[in-house]
User: Which sequence fits this backbone?
């Protein structure tokens, strides 16, 4: 069995070094965490290409193996043979290690008409309800109950029947979960006010390649004509737009000519237009973007919205770049108000940054200096890596397992660009972290 590579490591960065060269973006984390559960809907092996080496993938492999799938994973190609999969209860310990494992709810319901799944975990972004997922399952004829005292949801349907479902809020997870549950339901399901993220198109493409009939993915109305069987297929995953946005921020902050490869401009239009508003000089090509050396960037205001708006997942990564820029600026996250775990840590690095009501405010340029900091979640961790690359001196980042959940070979990629960065794997790292937390 392939074990998840979680451990209490730390990342040590000597900041202030200019970066140059090329960095290639990996397959999208938010796609793969849906594509892997989606694969069990097939009656034959599914081959997924361009798999990022992130711990979320290993956690999902682990869950799939427990369910009875056969897994082959080498050189970025993952084969999932779902023929032995059974709808067994998925342990909440496994499910809690990553939130996106809630896609097994939709996938198991769609395949077997029943699912027992531990309530989801994931990043620490405050309350993350799943009422819309449940509303969708119920609309398809399922009954949903939770066992009191046990963090399990029991979802059952004798017959899944198509339905018209209006999403009260735009939700990526609920849109995908309903697609997975409805793909074999009798009749035509319509999801209105659906999320439009590229990862949703990626999941629909995989399902259609498996023989499903999903229309309109990428628009706010998705129609799913139920089919009785799904077959095996081969699918190449889309590039990770959030990883791309993270490297673009790094390139703008400390780059002296960095080319980000395997990036799709159309997935990042709102983000790139924000960088342009700041004065970041870029050359945009079909599948790569070169960021030129940048001085005297302007601070801007950022407000996150569902796709194609500015992604909430890029709010934290862009913060250090804003700190480095001149003037006044603020960030408002309309999707996750509590996504502010990076703020106190950036303050420890000398940032002029504060939270007022639901706004993150930066009044002036910040001279960042190295410090000992703790990542509170995946994108907060990315934010700290960028701040550390900018800062004078040495920064040590703890809780790096969050970062390794979503950034494929980040140490190697940044080292290749000329960063002085190391992943230190020591047990004493845990003790040191405990000391910092005590000292807070
Ligand atoms: C996905 C992404 C995550 C990203 C987020 C928003 C994956 C694996 N994760 O998360 O990286 O930050 O989209 O782009 O793709 N909501 C409800 N009820 C629900 C579901 C959601 O109220 O049943 C709310 C959430 O609290 C949030 C908003 O809807 O405020 C959007 O959440 P959603 O799009 O569902 O996020 P995730 O799918 O969990």
Assistant:
């Amino acid at each position: 069995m392939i074990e998840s590579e979680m451990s209490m490591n730390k990342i040590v960065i000597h900041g202030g070094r200019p970066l140059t060269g090329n960095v290639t973006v990996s397959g999208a984390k938010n796609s793969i965490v849906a594509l892997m559960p989606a694969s069990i809907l097939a009656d034959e092996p599914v081959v997924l290409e361009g798999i990022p080496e992130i711990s979320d993938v290993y956690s999902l492999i682990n869950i799939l193996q427990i369910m009875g799938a056969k897994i082959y994973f080498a050189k970025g190609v993952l084969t999932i043979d779902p023929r032995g999969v059974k709808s067994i209860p998925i342990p909440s310990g496994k499910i809690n290690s990553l939130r996106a494992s809630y896609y097994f709810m939709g996938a198991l319901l769609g395949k077997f008409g029943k699912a027992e799944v531990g309530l989801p975990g994931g990043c620490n972004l405050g309350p993350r309800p799943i009422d819309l997922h449940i509303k969708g399952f119920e609309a398809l004829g399922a009954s949903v109950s939770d066992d009191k005292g046990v963090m399990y949801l029991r979802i059952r349907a004798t017959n899944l029947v198509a339905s018209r479902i209006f999403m009260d809020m735009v939700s990526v997870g609920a849109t995908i979960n309903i697609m997975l549950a409805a793909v074999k339901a009798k009749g035509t399901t319509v999801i209105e006010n659906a999320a439009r993220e590229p990862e949703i198109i990626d999941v629909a493409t995989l399902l259609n390649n498996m023989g499903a009939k999903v229309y309109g993915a990428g628009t706010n109305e998705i129609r799913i004509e139920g089919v009785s069987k799904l077959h095996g297929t081969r699918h190449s995953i889309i590039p990770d737009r959030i990883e791309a946005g993270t490297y673009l921020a790094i390139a703008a902050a400390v780059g002296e000519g960095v080319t980000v490869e395997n990036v799709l401009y159309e997935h990042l239009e709102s983000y790139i237009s924000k960088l342009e508003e700041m004065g970041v000089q870029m050359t945009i090509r079909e599948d790569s973007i070169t960021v030129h050396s940048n001085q005297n960037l302007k601070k801007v205001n950022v407000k996150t919205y569902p796709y194609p708006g500015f992604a909430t997942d890029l709010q934290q990564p862009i913060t250090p770049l804003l700190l480095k820029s001149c003037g006044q600026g603020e960030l408002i996250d309309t999707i996750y108000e509590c996504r502010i775990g990076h703020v106190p840590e950036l303050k420890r690095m000398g940032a002029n940054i504060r939270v007022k009501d639901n706004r993150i405010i930066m009044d002036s340029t910040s001279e960042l200096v190295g410090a000992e900091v703790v990542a509170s979640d995946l994108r907060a961790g990315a934010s700290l890596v960028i701040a550390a690359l900018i800062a004078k001196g040495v920064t040590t980042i703890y809780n790096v397992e969050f970062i390794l959940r979503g950034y494929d070979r980040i140490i190697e990629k940044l080292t290749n660009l000329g960063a002085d960065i190391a992943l230190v794997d020591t047990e004493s790292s845990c003790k040191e972290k405990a000391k910092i937390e005590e000292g807070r």
